[in-house]
UniProtKB/TrEMBL annotation:
Keyword field: Amino-acid biosynthesis, Branched-chain amino acid biosynthesis, Transferase
Top-rank EC class of the record's enzyme: transferase
CDD domains: ACT_AHAS
Top-rank lineage group of the source organism: Bacteria
Gene name in the database record: ilvN
Upper lineage: Bacteria, Pseudomonadati, Spirochaetota, Spirochaetia, Spirochaetales
Organism: Candidatus Treponema excrementipullorum
Identification of the protein by name: Acetolactate synthase small subunit
Catalysed reaction equations from the record: 2 pyruvate + H(+) = (2S)-2-acetolactate + CO2
Domain ACT stretches: 5-79
Subunit structure: Dimer of large and small chains.
Amino acid sequence: MERYVLSVLVENHAGVLSRVSGLFSRRGYNIDSLTVGETSHPGQSRMTIVVTGDEYILEQIEKQLSKLVEVISIKHCALSETVVREMALIKVAATEANRGGIIETANIYRARIVDVGVESLVLEVTGSEDKILSLIRLLEPYGIKELVRTGLTAMGRGSGVLA
């Protein structure tokens, strides 16, 4: 089983996200990650969808997506030709004794401290999934109070344009 990243350009109006996610659930396909945002073109949004499966499943997903009226284009993102990033916010238990270690770890990963509380720090980190997982593992001994991740976002390298 492989992971595939799809960039899907869709019309930006109510119900499109529901129809796309419903298509996956009706056919028993799981979405590993889904991010959606407006593009520079009015009335269009880009969905970055990560799925796990084989080439047959990928082909079926692409065929089903292309049947939706609101779908403008679909592109399978080859990782060698695509910049892929994720963002995470991590709230870590912080005491006077461990605060320095947390800040040092954040600096190594180029994570920003975006909130300082009496008993916690909130870090923001952007990068590859591996980078984020590595930082999470290093912060676990301090005590992660809360964690939220955006899911993958992708853009074609060089002059290439995704769907």
